[in-house]
Amino acid sequence: MSGRGVLRKLFYKKQHNKDERATEIGMPTNVKQHIHVSKNSETGMLEGLPSSWLRLINTQITPAEQNENPDAAIQAVKFHMYTIKKEKAQDEPFKPFVTEEAITEEDLEIEKLLDKKNAHQSQDSDLSIGQSSEEDVAPNDNFSQRQTMPATPTKHSMKKKDAMMDLTAVVQDLTLIGDESEESPILRKKEMMNAALTDEEVYEELKRICNKDDPYVRFERIKQLGAGASGVVFIAIDSKDNSRVAIKDIDLTKQSKKDLILNEINVLKGFHHKNLVNFLDAFLSYDHLWVAMELLDGGSLTDVVTEVVMKEGQIAAVCRETLQAIAFLHSKGTIHRDIKSDNVLLGMDGTVKVTDFGFCANIVGDEKRQTMVGTPYWMAPEVVTRKQYGKKVDVWSLGIMAIEMIEGEPPYMKETPLRALYLIAAVGRPKIPRWESLSPDFQDFLDKCLHVDVDLRATADELLAHPFLECAMELKTLTPLIKAAQRILHKSYD
Ligand SMILES: Nc1ncnc2c1ncn2[C@@H]1O[C@H](COP(=O)(O)OP(=O)(O)OP(=O)(O)O)[C@@H](O)[C@H]1O
C-alpha cells in the first residue's frame, strides 16, 4: 500500500472509530418507534432523527447545508452508518472475494423496508416515520423483490413535498439501522439466503477447482508487499518456470463467508485482458488459500500521483489503458465499482492494469444496481444517493481518478468521509483544480466522465474514441515517474 494509501486508510479508520464512539450503533431494532423528521424553521437543522444520527450530522454538516440539502445530508449519514455497521459485522480480513450477495446481505433488508415504505408513501405524505404498522417490518417478509424496487425520483425532478417524502423513506431506513433500542426483528442472513454452501462443501469445491500442487513447495516466498483487509500479498518465485508472481494468502479460518470465495475465483478465472491484473491459479493448503496473480512491479498508481506531477499525455495514456479494462469488464456484463488509483497497478515498463475485483457486480444488459458499494471519494452521485445505477459509475470514478492524476488526490480527500458523501450528493460534479490550465480536449473528457446526469455521461466505449486519448504518450514514459515515486517511498520489488 502506498504512503497515501496508508494515510487514507488510517484517516478513514480514524474517522470511523471517532464516529463509532460517538454513535454507539445498535442492532436494527424497534421499528415501531414513532419518529417525526422535520426541519427547524429557524435554524434549518434536521430534527426528529435518532440522537446518534443527529450528533453525527450536526458535527459535520452545517445548519445551512442541512437546510439546503436535507436529503443529501440524510443519504450521507445513512451511507456512513451503513458502512460502519458493515465494518463491524465483517471483522474478518477477507475482502476481494465478496460477491454481490455478500454486499447486499444487509442492504436487502434495508431495501425491502424502503420498498414497502415507498409503496406506503404513495398513499400517505405525512412526514411521520413511525406510523407504519408492524407489518412493514414483519420478520417473514420475502426479500426477493429487491431487483424490482422502483428507482427513487431524481433530486431535480422532485417537487418539495415529494422530496420530503423521499427523505422520510430514508429516515425510516436510518432508524432501522441505527436505532438504539433492544428488539431485533430483522432476519439474519442464513434465514434469507438460499442454498448457502456449508464450510465442508466449500472446502470440497475449492479442493476440486484449485491446483493440486503444494504451494509451500512450489513457491519461494520472497518479500511481503502489503497486508490488506483481504489477506497478505507477497512476491514469490514459481519454481515451475522461475517466474515472479504476486500471491495473496487468505486464511480461510478467518472467513465467515467462505462460499463467496468460490464465486469470485470462478469469475476471475474467466477474465483475461491485458489491462487486468490477471489471475494465474489458486492453491489450497489446509486452511490457507493462495491466489497467484501477475506481479506488477511498478506499484500502484497512487504512489505516482501522490509523489510526481504527471503530464497530460501520461494521464491520457493511463486513462486509455484503464478504460480498456473497464470497457472489457462492461462487455462481460461486469461493473468494477471500485475504480481508483489504489486499484490501478503499474509495471516497470509502464503497463497499466486494473485490480481488486472484490466489488464487481454482474449485470445483464442495462440492468441496474442499487447497492452502496465503493470507496466514498470516488463514488458516483447516483450510488451515494441510492438511485439505481449501472456501468457508468465506473466512468465517474475514472473521472475522479483523472483528478487524482492532476491534483494528487480526489476531491474532498481532506474532508471526513461523511462530509465527502454529503458533498458528492449535494454538489454533484466537483470543482476541478487547475481547470484553466487543462487543454480543451482534457476538459471535455472530464466533462463527459463527470456528468451527474447518467444519460449524458459517456460510456467507456465512447470515451475510448475521445480526442483527448490521441495525445497519449508512450507507456514507457511512465517508467521515470514510477522510479521517482519508488525512490521517494523507499519501495523495491526485488
Ligand atoms: N498483483 C500485484 N502485484 C503487485 N503488487 C500487488 C499486487 N496485488 C496487490 N499488490 C499490492 O499488495 C498490497 C496489498 O494488497 P491488497 O489488495 O491485499 O491490499 P489493499 O489493496 O491495501 O487492501 P484491500 O485488501 O482492502 O484491497 C498493496 O500495496 C497492493 O498494491
UniProtKB/TrEMBL annotation:
<dbReference type="InterPro" id="IPR017441">
    <property type="entry name" value="Protein_kinase_ATP_BS"/>
</dbReference>
<dbReference type="InterPro" id="IPR011009">
    <property type="entry name" value="Kinase-like_dom_sf"/>
</dbReference>
<dbReference type="InterPro" id="IPR051931">
    <property type="entry name" value="PAK3-like"/>
</dbReference>
<feature type="compositionally biased region" description="Polar residues">
    <location>
        <begin position="120"/>
        <end position="132"/>
    </location>
</feature>
<dbReference type="GO" id="GO:0005737">
    <property type="term" value="C:cytoplasm"/>
</dbReference>
<dbReference type="InterPro" id="IPR000719">
    <property type="entry name" value="Prot_kinase_dom"/>
</dbReference>
<dbReference type="GO" id="GO:0004674">
    <property type="term" value="F:protein serine/threonine kinase activity"/>
</dbReference>
<keyword id="KW-0418">Kinase</keyword>
<keyword id="KW-0963">Cytoplasm</keyword>
<dbReference type="Pfam" id="PF00786">
    <property type="entry name" value="PBD"/>
</dbReference>
<keyword id="KW-0723">Serine/threonine-protein kinase</keyword>
<dbReference type="InterPro" id="IPR000095">
    <property type="entry name" value="CRIB_dom"/>
</dbReference>
<feature type="domain" description="Protein kinase">
    <location>
        <begin position="219"/>
        <end position="469"/>
    </location>
</feature>
<keyword id="KW-0547">Nucleotide-binding</keyword>
<feature type="region of interest" description="Disordered">
    <location>
        <begin position="117"/>
        <end position="160"/>
    </location>
</feature>
<keyword id="KW-0067">ATP-binding</keyword>
<feature type="compositionally biased region" description="Polar residues">
    <location>
        <begin position="141"/>
        <end position="155"/>
    </location>
</feature>
<feature type="binding site">
    <location>
        <position position="248"/>
    </location>
    <ligand>
        <name>ATP</name>
    </ligand>
</feature>
<dbReference type="InterPro" id="IPR036936">
    <property type="entry name" value="CRIB_dom_sf"/>
</dbReference>
<keyword id="KW-0808">Transferase</keyword>
<dbReference type="GO" id="GO:0005524">
    <property type="term" value="F:ATP binding"/>
</dbReference>
<dbReference type="Pfam" id="PF00069">
    <property type="entry name" value="Pkinase"/>
</dbReference>
<protein>
    <recommendedName>
        <fullName>non-specific serine/threonine protein kinase</fullName>
        <ecNumber>2.7.11.1</ecNumber>
    </recommendedName>
</protein>
